[in-house]
Prior knowledge:
heterotrimer, A: disordered N terminus, B: mainly alpha, 15 helices, globular
Amino acid sequence: MRKSIKLGISAALALSVSSVAVMADIKVAFIDPLSGPFASTGTNGLHQFEFAADYLINQNGGVLGGQNIEIVAFDNKISPKESLIQLQVAIDQGIRFIAQGNSSGVANAITEAVEKHNKRNPDDRVLFLNYAAVDPALTNDKCNFWHFRFDANADIKMDALTDSIAADEGIKKVYIIGQDYSFGKAVSAAANRFLGEKRPDIEIVGDELHPIGKVKDFTPYSRKIVASGAQAVITGNWGADMLGLGKSIVENGYDGPIYTYYAAGSGITAAFGETGEGVIRLVSEGQINPPVSDAAADYYNAFKAKYPDGNVDQSRITNTIGMLAAAIDAAGTADDVVKIAYELEGMTYDSLWGGQVMMRENDHQAIQNVHIQAHTKEGITFAYDGSEYGVKAIKTIEMASADSESSCNMKRP
Amino acid sequence: MELILVNLIDGLVTGLLLFMLSAGLTLIFSMMGVLNFAHASFYMLGAYFGYQISLALGFWVALLVAPVVVGVMGAGVERYGLRRVHQYGHVPELIFTFGLALLIEELVQFVWGKNQMPFDIPDVLNFTAFAIAGNSIPAYKIFMIFISIAIFIGLLYILTRTRVGMIIQAALSYPKTVEALGHNVPLIFMGVFGVGTALAGVAGVIAGPVLGTFPGMAFVLGSIVFVTIVIGGLGSLWGALVASLLIGWITTFAKAYNLAMSDVLNAIGIATPENLDDNIFRDLWTVTSPQIADILPYILMVLILIFRPYGLFGNRDA
Amino acid sequence: MSNQATNTASPMRAGLLSITYMPWIIAGVLLLILPFIFTNNSSITIMNQMWITVIFALAYNMLLGQGGMLSFGHAVYMGLGGFFCMHVMNYVEDFGVAFPLPLLPLFGGLFGMGFAMLIGSFSTTGAGTRFAMISLGVGELIAACSIIIVAFFGGEEGISGDRTYGLPFFGIEFLKQIEVYYLISFWLMVSAVLMYLFSRTPVGRMANAVRDNPERAAFLGYSARWVRFYSFAASGFFCGIAGGLFAINYEILTEENLNAASSGVILLVTFLGGVGFFFGPIIGAIAFTLLQTVLSLETELWAFYAGSLFLATVMFFPGGLAGLMMMHVPAMRFGKLGTLTMPYVKTLLPGLIAMFGAACLVEMTFHYRHAATGDNEMTLFWTTFDSHSIVPWIIVFAVTAVAIWITRKTAPALKEAWGEANTPPKGGV
Lengths: 413, 318, 429
């Protein structure tokens, strides 16, 4: 198969980059959905990767004294099967770094395939940079040496969320609802565990799962939530399921907070609009509003100038690129991924978005500041989705869950 | 008790919305023998056109204009696409609509992008009509109920009281004879297809603000529309209505009450096994009704097809 | 359409009988040497995917093409076969059972057949809409179960295994893609031959009869229902084999292998290739895999092009790509294929240019609307230009318009040449 000539944005970027490049570029394969129902998240993620590589690294002299980082996009259509095919294509093109994030199911398939590939082909090993799949198992039972997670996992985020709930004395009843799959179940299990530890007096009035991506109308669920008298709702829903659930709950008479993971960007902020004000409480790494520094504001403005419709809603992407570049520089090579992996392990990195990121050695889980953010239009410097709404940090947990346990039993080469 | 009433209302809204889609589909299906896979896509087009028009001219104009646009597109698809494929037989026709559904989804993404559209309920209707024991019933839902019932009455009137309706009804039962009588059957087909898709368009405009306007909305609705008309019986408007309401209420109640499989099995005298975690049937024991609510219509359909292939009200073999 | 297909095919048979082994030998040799032409791992991965799809599509066509049964949930049989194989694979790994990996697909086949017999026992009583809707319902049920019943299906993450723990097969441990490739190719040849032979058995012949006229078949003393049932079970068997090969190749199975989208794709693949001919699905599977895997590397809009191609096929060539090829057989037999060359070049070349021109316009519109601000440069067909200036638009638009004009202008000549080529030469054949 001939090497693909990329169309559109990536081609233009590659062109502008390669004209400056003296040496061969260091390529990072971005394997995420660029077509189909989840394409908006994937495309926006790709823009953030390309921008981060360009703005942070390439415009500042690159790595290893002049090599640029180039992002090569592969469309996996959010299918595990397609992801494995595209992974093979990427490896064949000589790419050593694989970035993926949407769907823990896909991440699971990739991390296993990467482990097998590296075992069977010691000559062209690859690293898996997981920037968004948060199933805790990936850094616990299923961990391996080649996988690095730059997002806080579901347990860490839930730890932060429940801190916030525990601090609110008024909350006595909590309802947990999620999508019926590994992540939804992980959220539910973690919420039960942490609430039980922190506030045994809180009653969990509902704990249920609904089919993922299949619910047309959330009204019956909202009725149950309203009828249960819940004062807070915890959900791991994302995409259309998040929007449908959130809007439906509010419409049907609920006025408490909804604690959640993914309710910002990709059109969701705009679609929530006024409905979400004072309701949506989001847990995530990376503080966008208020900007932590001038550098962060400059970065965001530059991104906005390039992609007026885009959002920097996955700030961990800048950390991923930054840490990769730092590890490559420290290792002095872009080919020996074992060396680079050892550099990444235990690395401490100053995040553009405030605080530090520490790549924990024993399980390759990034430890960083986690924020509780509110969906609002007050005090928003950088709004999402071209609307006037955005998310504002209202509480920060520094180096969240730094001492949490991991069942990872890492085998190193 | 109050909750039952609330769920009855919610189920009614879901059912009536489904009816607006299945009414058009059952007419198309029974007359042309085409299982129109793109029907839900016309519903999606309705929502998107509704959103686009409401930006410029407001929701009420959109409610009138968008379905007309969708209906004209539907008629065009019949005239220039389906009619051509018709000569090859039913399977290619069906596959044509299948491909059309894919293409419409791609087109929508091309034009409007992949994000969810901020299509909102008009301000006039954005209030709580009344509340039953703390459960508010939004005015928009009442509005949806009235629109659907008005459409049902209108359809019933046209089909049973007008000349065109008579011809359509005759064509439903004896398409060959109607053609032999000198009626322009292709024109009737085009008209029925147009009206059917326009109904789907109406459903799209009024459902868009509550159920979300996004490229996957046709897929989420999916094949449930076919299930409805098969359960109701092909060609039967009443069947479509009854089946829609049935499905609306079944799914709503299954979601509203957490009925666990273990409770059901215990009730009929089967005891829960001791160590459930090692049991190979553990997942069956822990299944709850909300988990399976959306597949209940499919189970119902398979059972109906096995035991009563005509559907509830139909008189023709599926 | 089926009538038309049989009519074209029947005169073929007598002529092809003498060379009936040739296509199989050619196919076998091709399978052997392809990895030497496309040597890198990714092409082998893509070919593996292709051959698995070929088996699946051929099995699907046993129903659609040969039996006239339209199934909307056929991914279920392939998926279940695959899941079962994966469990066997894990069993081999966990308990150290000595089991040669190449036999694994057989288990998948048997499991697929078993499930097909279970469903077929009530779904094959009718063809048409009833069969289609039952298959749809069952498909949705199994897909939903795959999320709910975690013990067997592993939930959304699916289940995975490692193929290398089986008994080494003549020293081969299936560590490398190329070893898996030959395993898949072997099963492809075996399955294709068996499916072809099945279509020649009395049951296979009766399936055609039942498709075309169930009543007459019944008068001949055959039970339409049992003929359908046997076809359905056989199709389930080969789907299961495809599932087993999927398990070996990807070492993971997920809900994706069972859901409605996969069932829809196989319908598209089979129809695109052509349901009227045995080799139709093979062409369809190859074309679709290339579209999905290779075209999607080139453009985000691949699904748009695939959809357009598919719609055009249904509208203009209901016999699919295979039907399009077989249309030329009469001309070939009259020895007049050569006379079509020039008219083809005159019409199809501009037609092709017009198509690419239209695609360029679509891509440019997409780029104009979605590219980053200040990022005006785009590259199409090795040419880089500014999508925000008017000149490239005028050029592409003009080229497309002229190409369309030439195509329309030369089309009547092609039609005439076509008619001429299909007239038997004087003096008879």
